[in-house]
Structure formats: structure tokens, C-alpha cells
Amino acid sequence: xxxxxxxxxxxxxxxxxxxxxxxxxLLVALISAWLPYKYTATVSxxxxxxxxxxxxxxxxxxxSGYLPTQIDIIESARVAGRVVELFIERNPYMENxxxxxxxxxxxxxxKQEKERPKSKDEQKIEFRLWLARLLQKQLDVRPxxxxxxxxxxxxxxxxxxxxxxxxxxxFASAYxxxxxxxxxxxxxxxxxxxxxxxxxxxxxxxxxxxxxxDYEQKHGIVSVAGRLDLEANRLLxxxxxxxxxxxxxxxxxxxxGEGEDINTMADVISNPVVSTLTSDLNRLSAERSQLLGRLGxxxxxxREINDKIREIRIRRDEESKKVKDSLGTSSRSDDVxxxxxxxxxxKQRAKVLxxxxxQNKISVLQSNIESAQKAYDxxxxxxxxxxxxxxxxxxxxxxxxxPATPPADPSSPKIVLNIVxxxxxxxxxxxxVALLLELLDxxxxxxxxxxxxxxxxxxxxxxxxxxxxxxxxxxxxxxLRPHPAAA
Length: 487
Fold this sequence. Notes:
4 strands; 14 helices; 487 residues; elongated; mainly alpha; four-stranded antiparallel β-sheet; single chain; Bacterial polysaccharide co-polymerase-like; disordered C terminus
């Protein structure tokens, strides 16, 4: 089909193309006029993101899902129930079954008149639930079109402009109340839990300190670190004394070895008395030698010197023996000293080990105190933060940007828009019906249609300006398919 043929079809069936749009427009206009007017009121809220009261920074939890969560809260049954409460507070007659039309409508929809009678309280509860569901059906909550905006628009549609504005504002007020109660309840619960944890950690810290104090009092410990250093130094000193005593004893034993000549002992030779007597003995021996050279053996002077030499030798031997005996006494005293030092070292070592054991035990107790102190400080700090959060939670982060006002014009039905759409749909429907009728009952609309019908007959031309009656006499305008008799 060419565009020319399409226009010819529309021209031929113009009454259908014109009539159907007119009928559709009239029908839509009548329906729009018959439908009751509905008014939509919108309240705009600014929902600020939660801010940490301690750090002053936006909390990480308030990400891209924060506004959708708030929208779900607004559309929840709890907010709708709160709206019902506010609505009934302002209109207490609504629960009067003899006066309220809404109550009677609820009776009709739920068929309460045919059911078993219920108590008044049960009926009020069911009525409020039904009314909350009814209010939710006309509610529309949408965020602002701007991606970074924190504005939420709450719209409510109803047949009365004043009621639409009032209910929209009630939803905003109910949402703010519920949001505040949720934040307050969560923050209060966190604060209470952390206060209990603080008490628990404080008790654990006090228990750890008490255990350390009891242990120190039981063992009489004042400062184990300083005392341990002192006792360790004393142990080192005793070990040094023991080493010196053992060295001295070994020297004494080596000096008074068995079978050694007493006169050749170093201690005897170094003795002042023995040394003096030895000098006198040497001097007298020299004088005797000189006298023997001049006098005989039996000379009185020689005998006198011999007596003196014998007397000095006796005295020297006695002094040497005393020195040797003193060395033995010194060795015995060194043995006693070594034994005493050994016992003292063992006792001191046991004392040091005991102090080290006390130190290890005290270190464990002090470590428990430090751990308990850290846990207590951490919980206490978090408790302070939750306390600040609970105080901050008492202030809502939602504010009304634009309250809902009674709209001047109804939101539906939109007569102008409906008529424009009706015109468009009517035209499309008219064209479609015309084409469908042409498909079912094809006719010759021009030379192109005639050429398609009679292919073997040459086409000479078209006589312009012929009236419809003359065209019918000449056979122009008949059906495209030839009559069977003509065949």
C-alpha cells in the first residue's frame, strides 16, 4: 500500500476516522466528569544523616540505604497506626458507631453485623487496624529526584483537600514520633547494656586488685622488685666470699703440706719473730766460727756462744711450731667459714627463688589488673559515647521543609490530559478501524487499484471530476475482485 492509497482510504472512510475519535473524546469527557475529584497534598521532610555525637562525623551506617529505610518506616503499619491515633484524637466521634460513617463502612466491608458479637475493645482494635490499612492505600512516599538530596516527599490523596493536607501532615508527625522513639529506644538500650558491662568490668578490676593486695599481705611483700635485687646482690656477695675462703683454704693447705720442713715454710720464714731469731742465730754462728779459729772447742766463750745458739734454735723452733699450728687453726676456721658460707648461700638462694616466685605471681596478678583496667577503660569510654548518643537521640534529625496545604486544584481526574489522550487514542483507533474495514471490503480508489485488478487491459487514463453517480454507471468504484459472471 502506497501513501496515496492510504490517504484515499482515509478520505473514503472519513466518517469512521472522524466519528470514532469524537465518540472516544465524548466518552472520556463524560467519565472524567462523572468521577469524583481527588486532591493530593504533599509534605516535604528533610532527613539528615545521623552524625556521631563524639567524633562529629557522619556514621558509616548511613549510606545509600538510609533513605530507602526511612521510606519503609513511613510506609509501615506502625506509622499508619500512629496516624490513626492522631486522627482519632482530633476526631473522637469516629469511633462512635452511631455517628461515624467510617465506622459503618468498616462494618459493611468486614460484615461484622453477621458475625458473632465482639467486645467494644476488640472492635476498636480491628477498626483501627482496618483504618490504618485504608490510609496506607492512598499514601505515596518518594525521595527527591536529586541523587544527593535528603528530602522525602509524603503525598496523600483523598476526596477532600483539607483532609488530604491534614492526613499528610499527620503522617509526617507520626513518622517523626516513631523515628524519635526508635532512636531513643535503641540508644537507651545500648546505654543500659554498656552500663551493665561497666559494672561487670569494674567488679572484675576490683577483684584483681583485691587478689594482689591479699597476696602481698599474706606473704608480707612491700616491694618485691627492690627486695629481689637486694637479695640477689647479697647472694652474689656470699658467693664471692665463699670463693675467697676456698682460695684461702687451698693456699693454707698448700703451705702446710705434709712432710715439708717447718723452717722452709713461707709463713714461718715471713714471721717477724722467727725472722729475728734466724738473724740472731746466723750472727752467733758467724761469731762462733771466728772464735773457733782463735780458740778451742772447750773455750768458755765458745761454750757460751754454743749455749746461746742452742737456746735461740729452741726458741725459733717453738716459734715456727706456733706459726705452723696457727696455720692449722686458720685452716680449720676457713673450713668452718666455708661451711657457714655454703649454708648461708643455700638459704639465700632459696630466699631469692622464693622472691622470684612471688614476683612471677605478682606479675600475673598485675597483668590481670592491667587487662581488667584496659577492658574497664574501653567499656567506660564506650559507655560515655552511648550516653552522648542517647542524649543526641532525644533530638530528632528530621525537620519539615514544606508542610502540606490544602491543594487548590484536584489531582484527579485530569480532564485536559484525559481528553488529549482520548483524541490520540481515538484517532489511532479510527485509522485502525478504517484500515480493517478496507481490508475486509476492498474497493477501487484509483488507477493503481484498477491496474492491480485488471492486468491484461491497457490503462488509458482517469476522467477527472466525475460525480459518484456517473462513476457507478461506468463501473468505477466497484469491488476490486471481478464479478464471477464476468469471467
